[in-house]
Amino acid sequence: MKTLDELRQEINAIDCDLAKVLQDRLSVAQAIAAYKIENGIQILQSDREAEIYRNFLGNFDKDLEWLARAIYGTVLRSSRALQFHDQAEKDVCDSMVKLVKNAPQTLAPVYTVCYQGVPGAWSHSAAKKLYPNAETISVLTFEEIFQAVSDGRAQAGVLPLDNSTAGTVDDVYDLLIRHDCMIQSASPYPIRHCLLAVPGATRETVKSVHSHPQGLAQCSRYIKAHRYLPILESNTAVAAKKIAESGDTSIAAIASRDTAKLYGLSILEEGINDSECNQTRFVSITKNFSVPKDANRISLAFRLPNQSGALANVIGLFSYHGINLLKISSRPIPNQPWEYCFYLDCAIDGLNTNVFGLLNQLDAELGWVKLLGCYPEQTL
C-alpha cells in the first residue's frame, strides 16, 4: 500500500496536469467568445452545452457520473462567465448593461420627498435625514409613495425595506416589482422604540399596545412579558396620534421619543425593542434612474424555473464574477401558486467589467430579471 505522502504527490502531479488543461480550455473558450461577439452569436448555446455534457459524462463510470456532472458543470458555467465577461468588456451588451452604462451620474434635485404615515413616524425622520432641505409630504400607504413619485408629485419617496430584528418589509419589495421606480440610495437608521401613553397612564394601567406590524414585531418579547394585547396600526406615529386623541389610559403606542413630544404623550419606558442594536434600512426611490459615482450596491429581482439547481446556479455566478452577494430573499408570485420571485443585493467596488459581466450574464440567462437600483449604501 502506498503511503499518504506518495498519494499526495500523485494528487499534486494530477493537479498540475489539470491546471494546464483548464488553462487551455479557458483560452479556447475566450477564442470562441471572440468569434461569437464578432459574428453576433449568442453566448449561451444550450444545445451545444447539452452535447458537451453527454460526451464528457460518457467517459465516467455510472457510480461517479453524478459527481462528474457537478464538477464539469462548474467548468462549463465558469467558461460561460468568462465569455460574458469578455462580451461586456467589448461593450456589445444589451438591456441592463446599457442601462447602467448610459445612466447619468448626477442625481436630479429633490425638492419634495414623500413618506408613509404622519409627522413623527420613523419614515418621516429618515426622510429628513436623507433629504434635509426637501419638503416632506405624508401619505397613508406605501403604494401612494410610488404613485406620487411616478406622477411627479414628489421627486423622491422614502420607505423602510429591512429591519435587523423583524426582517423584510414585504409590501415594499412587492411594490418595487409592480412599479418602475428605482432605488436611488439606502441608509440604515437606528430604531429605539418607546412605550407611549397619555399623561396619567402607567405600565400597569395599559392593557393593549398599538403600532405598525414591524414595531410590534421588534418589541414582541416586551409585549409578551407584560401581557399586552398587540393592535396593528398603519404606522407608529399614527398609533401615537390615535392614543393621544383617545385620552384612554388603558392603551399605549410603540413609537419614537420624538413622537411623544409631538403628540404630548408620556414615555412610560424607553428602549423596549428586543434587540439593543435595532436598525431599519430605509431606501429612497425616484422615477429616473441614475448611477452615482459612489454607488456601492446593486439590487435585483428575478424569477427562476422550478428546476433542480436553478437557484444555486444563479448564486454561483456572483462568485464567478468576483461579486460579493450580501442578501437574498424570496416572495410568492401572485396568482402563480408555489412560484417565487427572488430579491438580492450585492456589493460592488465601482462599476467595472466584473459587474458588467455579471449583469450581462444574468440578463441573458434568466427568463425575467429586473434591475431595482445601482446606488450608494450609507453606513451609520
**From the alpha-carbon coordinates, what is the Rg to the nearest angstrom?**
26 Å
Mean pLDDT across the residues is 92
Per DSSP, what share of the residues sits in E-state strands of 2 or more residues?
Answer: 15-25%
Would you count the extended β strands for me? Answer: 15
**SS-derived structural category:** alpha/beta
Written account of the structure:
The model has no long low-confidence stretch (mean pLDDT 92). Strand 3 and strand 4 (167-168) form a beta hairpin. With 380 residues, this protein is α/β, with parallel strands linked by helices. Helix 3 packs across helix 13. The strands form three sheets. Strands 1, 2, 3, 4, 5 and 11 form a six-stranded mixed sheet that branches. It contains 13 helices and 15 strands. It is elongated, with a radius of gyration of 26 Å.
Write the layout of secondary structure elements.
Blueprint: H1 4-38, H2 46-57, H3 65-89, H4 96-102, E1 112-116, H5 122-130, E2 135-139, H6 142-150, E3 156-163, E4 167-168, H7 170-178, E5 182-190, E6 194-197, E7 208-211, H8 213-218, H9 220-225, E8 229-232, H10 236-246, E9 251-255, H11 257-263, E10 266-270, E11 279-286, E12 297-303, H12 310-320, E13 324-332, E14 340-347, H13 353-365, E15 368-375
Parallel strand pairs: 1-2, 1-3, 7-8, 7-9
Antiparallel strand pairs: 3-4, 3-11, 5-11, 6-9, 6-10, 12-14, 12-15, 13-14
Helix pairs in contact: 1-3, 2-3, 3-13
